[in-house]
């Protein structure tokens, strides 16, 4: 049974406790500062004030899963950072101050990863999620060179970080693949050829990610993985948005549209994502 927000905040002591460590970019961010107030029953994302600052213009998939589509009391440490790439040495972010996936993992391992008294997480009752690559691919898909080889380079670095999380104690991992970026409003203003090229690069990257996830689970004792196909769900909802209570205009954005702005899905779409991810997890960890 899925819990409501009121049950989470009021009856948390009667529920199982789960720690969720989230890594990614603006598609996941809530602007959490790990040196600030930590997650608690008063605010399960810790800081800033719930639901944080998101690119969705309201709640995003992380906050929906934290407070609504969950079967346990969830404390979410969301290290995701807007504009993040896997590693700034591979793809430079839009500003030098942006924390890459590599930087986010360092923040975790130096803080909550040490299992301090205030964050007593266990391997069995914690989830680690990774949704990265939107900016890596979005900022490079048109460049010359073997794009499959570049995806391998990115994924090598990604899974070096995942290995670090495993060594720290992570055993339950949720991975999210690249969404249909070629259907963002900003890309709809580009050429059909450009959109097709981006879709092709994403397809290659997603296939390689699926192989890496399967191999990671097969070669690491005690690991359980889930891979959510964001690409398929984005297309499903964009192909028939009114079924999900969203505006039929898939090139527009704002309240009531799939897109919250010209590059990020809005609150309504994120609600659908959270529902689908909850179905995938099936109460096994959150």
What report would you give on this structure?
This protein is an alpha/beta fold and 286 residues long. The chain has a single domain, classed as SGNH hydrolase (Rossmann fold, 3-Layer(aba) Sandwich). Helix content is 37%, strand content 10%. It is built from 9 helices and 5 strands. The chain has helices at 5-10, 61-67, 101-110, 134-138, 147-168, 185-188, 192-219, 230-239, 267-281; strands at residues 17-24, 73-78, 126-131, 172-176, 224-228. The chain has a 5-stranded parallel beta sheet with strand order 2-1-3-4-5, sandwiched between helices. The radius of gyration is 18 Å and the shape is globular. Residues 1-14 have low confidence and may be disordered. Residues 1-16 form the signal peptide.
- Tell me the name of the CATH class: Alpha Beta
What is the CATH H-level superfamily? Answer: SGNH hydrolase
Mean pLDDT: 93
Number of strands: 5
Global shape: globular
By helix and strand content, what is the structural category? alpha/beta
Relative helix content: 25-40%
Beta-strand content bin? 5-15%
Distance between the termini: 12 Å
The name of the CATH architecture is 3-Layer(aba) Sandwich
- Radius of gyration of CA atoms, rounded to a whole number: 18 Å
Low-confidence stretches: 1-14
Tell me the strand order in the biggest sheet.
2-1-3-4-5
SSE sequence, one letter per element: HEHEHEHHEHHEHH
SS field, number of helical segments? 9
> Can you tell me the number of structural domains?
1
Q: Largest sheet, described in full?
A: 5 strands, parallel
The name CATH uses for the topology is Rossmann fold
């Amino acid at each position: 049974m899925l819990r409501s927000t009121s049950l989470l905040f009021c009856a948390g002591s009667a529920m199982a406790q789960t720690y969720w460590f989230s890594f990614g970019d603006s598609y996941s961010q809530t602007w959490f500062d790990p040196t600030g107030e930590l997650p608690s029953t008063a605010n399960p994302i810790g800081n800033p004030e719930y639901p944080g600052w998101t690119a969705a213009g309201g709640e995003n998939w992380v906050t929906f899963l934290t407070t609504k589509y969950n079967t346990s009391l969830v404390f979410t440490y969301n290290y995701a950072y807007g504009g993040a790439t896997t590693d700034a040495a591979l793809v430079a972010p839009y500003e030098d101050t942006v924390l890459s996936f590599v930087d986010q993992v360092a923040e975790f391992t130096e803080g909550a990863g040490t299992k301090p008294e205030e964050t007593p997480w266990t391997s069995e009752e914690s989830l680690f999620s990774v949704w990265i690559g939107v900016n890596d691919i979005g900022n490079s898909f048109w460049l010359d060179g073997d794009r499959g080889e570049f995806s391998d380079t990115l994924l090598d670095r990604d899974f070096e970080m995942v290995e670090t999380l495993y060594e720290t104690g992570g055993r339950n991992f949720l991975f999210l693949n690249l969404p249909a970026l070629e259907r963002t409003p900003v890309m709809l203003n580009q050429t059909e050829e450009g959109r097709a090229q981006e879709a092709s690069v994403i397809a290659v990257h997603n296939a390689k990610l699926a192989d890496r996830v399967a191999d990671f689970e097969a070669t690491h004792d005690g690991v359980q993985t889930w891979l959510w196909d964001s690409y398929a769900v984005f297309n499903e909802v964009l192909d028939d948005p009114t079924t999900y209570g969203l505006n039929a205009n898939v090139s527009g954005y704002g309240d009531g549209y799939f897109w919250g702005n010209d590059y990020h899905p809005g609150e309504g779409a994120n609600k659908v994502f959270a529902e689908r991810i909850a179905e995938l997890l099936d109460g096994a960890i959150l």
